[in-house]
Amino acid sequence: MPGWAREGAITRLTWQLLARRCAHWLAQPDLGGLVITHGTDTLEETAWFLQSVLAPSKPVVITCAMRPTTALAPDGPQNLLDAITLAADPGTADFAPGAVLTVCAGRIHAADRVSKVHPYRLDAFESGDFGAAGWVEQGRVRWAGPLESVPAPEPGAVRAMSTPVSQWPWVELLHSHAGADDRQVRALVAAGVRGLLVAGTGNGTVHQALGRALREAQSKAVLVRLSTRCIEGQIVGAGSELPLAQHGLNPYKARISLMLELMA
To answer: Would the pLDDT of 1 be above 60?
Structure first.
């Protein structure tokens, strides 16, 4: 299934159309798995959206290319071959049942774990504390072990597949940082935002000015969820008044989950 949109132009409609096409093909009895080509910059977001709205009974693998086809040594052809190998491998259904997977530079990652961590190197993706789920090596798949758990579709999955995207709730992502300005929160609330995902510093710390504005937003029926901008680890303990994002996701995926939560 080739990509059809420039990555900088990917929208919620792109996600919905892609999810619908995936559901269509996964329902075909003679289909063994799906391979999707995608740009690298927002691959992790698309992977998590598909994981959140599909319940794939067959492998769904997303791959990409860090180098263009005009490069002296493009990586796209090998990544595509690895993705097809992964989707067709009988062990994929055993080691990662129901999972949306990504593969790049021979490394396999699960949708809830994968993040792009480098702007240009070929192995630009990591899974943080978890490490890679497996590897594709010389046409063979080697797994680190079975995935401990695969997230089930979000409660808002059915509505995301059927509701016009113009009616999807507006959810934005904010980052806490030194000197954070609370006016951004008040401007978003005044404009009609329905949900705010906050990437806190460290173990979920939020700048005090931002925190006050977020509590005001909650009093006006705006759902607020807290994640961390740290690349590895999850927020532990209960050090914040703000409710935590689900699944220990990074902020970009947690924003998607908050949007689906509002749809439910």
So the answer is: no
Instruction: Indicate the pLDDT class of residue 238, thresholds 50, 70 and 90.
Output: low
7-11, 59-63, 189-193 — which is least confidently predicted? Answer: 7-11
Is 152 inside any structural domain?
no
Q: Is residue 160 part of a domain?
A: no
Burial class (CB in 10 A: 0-12, 13-18, 19+), 50: buried
Find the domain containing 99 and state its range. Answer: 7-143
Cα–Cα distance, 44 to 50 (Å, whole number): 10
Domain count, the chain: 2
Is residue 165 within 8 Å of 13, Cβ to Cβ? yes
Nearest to 58, CA basis, from 38, 30, 16, 20:
30
3-state secondary structure the chain: CCCCCCHHHCCHHHHHHHHHHHHHHHCCCCCCCEEEECCCCCHHHHHHHHHHHCCCCCCEEEECCCCCCCCCCCCHHHHHHHHHHHHHCCHHHHHCCCCEEEEECCEEEECCCCEECCCCCCCCEECHHHCCCEEEECCEEEECCCCCCCCCCCCCHHHHHHCCHHHCCCEEEEECCCCCCCHHHHHHHHHCCCEEEEEEECCCECCHHHHHHHHHHHHCCCEEEEEECCCCCCCCCCCCCCCECHHHCCHHHHHHHHHHHHHC
Q: Give the pTM.
A: 0.94
